[in-house]
Amino acid sequence: MQEQEERPSWRNWLAVGVLGVGSFAIVTTELAPIGLLTPIAGDLGESEARVGLIVTGYAWIAAAGALISAMALGQMPRKPLLVALMLVLALSSAVAAMTTTFPALFGARIIGAVAHGIFWAMIGTLGAQIVPARHVGIATSIIFGGVSAASVLGVPLAGMIGHLDSWRTAFGCIAALSFVTAAAIVFSVPRVQATSPVGRKALSAIARDPVFLRIYGATACAITAHFAAFTYIEPLLSDSLHMPPNTLYALLFAFGVAGLLGNVLTGVFVDRYLKELVSGALALMALCLGGIGSIGGDAGAVIVGILLVGWGIGVAAVFVGFQTWILRAAGDAALPASAIYVAIFNAAIGTGALLGSIVISFTNLGGLMMVAAVALTASLIPVALLSNPAALQSPGQ
Fold first, then answer.
1. Residues 369, 271 share a domain
2. Confidence at residue 3, expressed as pLDDT on a 0 to 100 scale
């Protein structure tokens, strides 16, 4: 850690910001096809349902990649590994933009998905290694602010580019962003050596720990519920709530801005009130999704907007809060603990989208929101059984 301690503070925070851009790039890569299913399907002559596999399959393969990172790559130096992984992601998106068949597109996505899972598991632990321990919550909020931004802004931007030009241009822009991020990592992120025990024994020890089991259970439940609902947010607003296009885009933008605001608020309070923050965020999400599910098609845009803002703030706090909780509870075992967390998170993305489609086959979009609200309420149970973790301590304290 000596090298990091000798670096100017602003350079460490610059590195944190670059890692935040990296998380934005990888999650935008993962979720961008949600807004591009129709043009991709039309261009490749496939059904939208089949093209949707490039999102679901990507999420599940990324989950496997996160576990690989702990079992095989845990002792590798972080900086060159992160650069290599981001270059692989750039290459994956560039090849995807040039494919002419669905199998080739799926293959390009698979390669990127493995790198995605490994990259995410690695950056989850870096905030605690490159900034003072008292600022780990803020650093984690910045790094995983990219996740929230990608979920609520990256996907609409990719969709807009795809509709204004083509889906290939959208993938090309993502490839360019990934390449620039790799270059930024070279110049900003310090060299960090792995110190955590890794391998199957480390993963097994984490997986048997009741504290982690509760955090992972709450994560799986909450993230599955969120993405089951979020996948269908656009048809909910346009079809069920009859929002005109201009109002719909304004509401989605408000949702995105709320997510960014949620990250700022989380960064302020997460280090002192972690359990209260996570519990409050889950309750807020459940309340807002329940409200969206219960209002009728004649609901005003203001009411819908208020509920979407609450949802956006809540989900941002949940993203950062659970990751911070993992880092505090894991200590020196941060890598395997974070790897399992990332695996569960990505598996929940794919599972949420799949379960959402199943629930809709039995009910309507409003019913889906209500089911998601119930699941979010259930996720409060394992959180309630957890003790509020102590803040991380700096080395030597």
1. yes
2. 44
Query: Which DSSP state fits 300?
Result: -
Q: Which residue is it, tokens 């961008």?
A: 32
- pLDDT (tens digit, 9 = 90+) per residue, 116-138? 988 888 887 787 778 777 777 78
| 8 A C-beta contact, residue 258 and residue 309 | yes
Per the listing, tokens 């995105």 go with 256
**Is 271 strand, coil or helix?**
coil
φ, ψ for residue 91, nearest 5 deg: -65, -40
The domain containing residue 1 runs over which residues?
Answer: 1-191
The DSSP letter of residue 236 is I
Q: Which tokens go with 173?
A: 């822009």
Helices (H) and strands (E) in the chain, counts: 18, 0
Q: Are 154 and 5 in contact (CB under 8 A)?
A: no
Q: What is the pLDDT of residues 76-114, one digit of tens each?
A: 778 888 999 999 999 999 999 999 999 999 999 999 999
My answer on whether 187 and 205 are in the same domain is no
Q: Give the tens place of pLDDT for each residue, 280-315.
A: 999 999 999 999 998 866 678 889 899 999 999 999
DSSP letters spanning 318-335: HHHHHHHHHHHHHGGGHH
For 125, 198, 336, the CA distances from 195, given in Å and listed in that order, are 11, 9, 11
- The total number of structural domains in the chain stands at 2
Of 140, 171, 191, the residue at which a domain comes to its end is 191
